[in-house]
Amino acid sequence: MFSFSVMVGLVPIVSIFGLFFSAAVDDNFPQGCTSSNSLCFYSLLLPVTIPVYVFFHLFSWMGTKLFRHN
């Protein structure tokens, strides 16, 4: 399994790469971001969702760990 420091560096890089890839592939990238069936919508949603998930997962794990030790 990957260490936390590798994931902290890897997740934003992969997310930004996906954002730039979808910007290069989709012809109407800035205009089509409001429709949920567009590629642009998910390319902007993914870089936001993954760090938020990692943040809340980490802090719930830390809260459980601190609660158990105190």
TrEMBL record:
Which one GO biological process term can you cite for this protein? GPI anchor biosynthetic process
Please give one Pfam family short name.
PIG-Y
The membrane spanning regions, by residue number, are 6-27, 39-62
Its source organism is Betta splendens
Which PANTHER family does the annotation name? PHOSPHATIDYLINOSITOL N-ACETYLGLUCOSAMINYLTRANSFERASE SUBUNIT Y
Task: Provide a GO CC annotation, any one.
Answer: glycosylphosphatidylinositol-N-acetylglucosaminyltransferase (GPI-GnT) complex
Q: What is this protein called?
A: Phosphatidylinositol N-acetylglucosaminyltransferase subunit Y-like
Q: Which controlled-vocabulary keywords does the entry list?
A: Membrane, Transmembrane, Transmembrane helix
**Classification lineage:** Eukaryota, Metazoa, Chordata, Craniata, Vertebrata
What is the top-level taxon of the source organism?
Eukaryota
Keyword Transmembrane applies: yes
